[in-house]
From TrEMBL:
The protein, known as: ABC transporter ATP-binding protein
Domain of life: Bacteria
Membrane-crossing segments per the record: none
Localization per record: Cell membrane
Pfam family, one: ABC_tran
InterPro entries assigned to the protein according to its UniProt record, in alphabetical order: AAA+_ATPase (IPR003593), ABC_transporter-like_ATP-bd (IPR003439), ABC_transporter-like_CS (IPR017871), P-loop_NTPase (IPR027417), Siderophore_ABC-ATPase (IPR051535)
Membrane topology (UniProt): Peripheral membrane protein
Entry annotated with the keyword Nucleus: no
Keywords attached to this entry: ATP-binding, Cell membrane, Ion transport, Iron, Iron transport, Membrane, Nucleotide-binding, Transport
Domain ABC transporter: residue ranges: 4-240
GO molecular function terms noted in the UniProt entry: ATP binding
Length: 291
């Protein structure tokens, strides 16, 4: 099942084509990670899914209807987006920020009602931000700020969350803090989460579905154990790496060593050190792991 999908989606900035004829179905109730080198189209696709960028051709579909033809407020009741590096006005408190998430549900310039306040309190609690509700956002740590913005997205009450590099500029502890929160939201509330991720090991550990992009085209798609391979890393990122099972989680773990050499390409790629992961890829066929 997929509430969110694209059909023959083409995207561009002016005359520069970024994505061409993309067909993608986002699995409901899973965390999907979009991975790829800089300029591969990850953030551009996310912007189009959120109605920020109009397609040149084709479209994004929400519940079978073209998303760009649906009223903005109606779309905002169904999906929320957290862009890269969001900023809040100086002095704005966490609770004030989170309350903005209720805008799609308000009529005119009405005050917050009982349901709005209930959702705000729930979002603060779900993200562990209740104790910081009266603190200015600009006085929070990086991880706390990200959690506050995620709380705002949660307050919208949507089933779908779009996150563009949610751990950018965060140290390792704060990265894990944010990723663990997203994992919990997906596990406990079955939220569908689509996120752009640069850290491949975060992608394979926290997402159940990976989409590997190159030049706006999906080369690999499916479960991490199928997508995260040495062959994929050469084709998509041009790096030479081993992929082994994580000793604690079993998720594929990327160990990069350097830039790939052309003569290192092979027709068949098999993972080692575990016996559980294997994949064969011929030519440029797109790999699909989902049944």
């Amino acid at each position: 099942m997929s509430r969110l999908s694209t059909n023959q989606l083409s995207l561009a900035y002016g005359s520069r084509q970024i994505v061409q004829e993309l067909n993608l179905r986002v699995p409901d109730g899973l965390i999907t990670a979009l991975v790829g080198a800089n300029g591969s189209g990850k953030s551009t696709i996310l912007k189009s899914m959120a109605r920020i960028l109009l397609p040149v051709q084709g479209g994004v579909y929400l519940d079978g209807k073209l998303i760009h033809r649906q009223p903005t407020k109606e779309v905002a009741k169904q999906l929320a987006i957290l862009p890269q590096n969001p900023s809040a006005p100086e002095g704005l408190t966490v609770r004030e920020l989170v309350s903005f998430g209720r805008y799609p549900h308000q009529k005119g310039f009405g005050n917050l009602n009982g349901e709005d306040n209930r959702m705000i309190e729930w979002a603060l609690q779900a993200t562990g931000m209740s104790a910081f509700s009266d603190r200015p956002v600009d006085q929070l740590s990086g991880g706390q700020r990200q959690r506050a913005w995620i709380a705002m997205a949660l307050a919208q009450g949507t089933e779908v969350l779009l996150l563009d590099e949610p751990t950018t500029f965060l140290d390792m502890a704060h990265q894990m803090e944010v990723m663990t929160l997203l994992e919990k939201l997906n596990r406990d509330q079955q939220r569908t989460i689509i996120m752009v991720v640069h850290d491949l090991n975060h992608a394979s550990r926290y997402a159940q579905h990976l989409v590997a992009l190159k030049d706006g085209t999906v080369l690999y798609e499916g479960e991490p154990t199928v997508v995260m391979t040495s062959r994929m890393l050469r084709e998509v990122f041009n790096i030479d790496a081993d992929v082994i099972p994580d000793p604690r989680t079993g998720a594929p773990l990327c160990l990069p060593y350097g830039l790939a050499e052309d003569h290192q390409e092979t027709a068949t790629d098999t993972l080692v050190l575990g016996g559980n992961f294997s994949q064969e890829h011929h030519g440029n066929n797109r790999v699909k792991a989902m049944a």
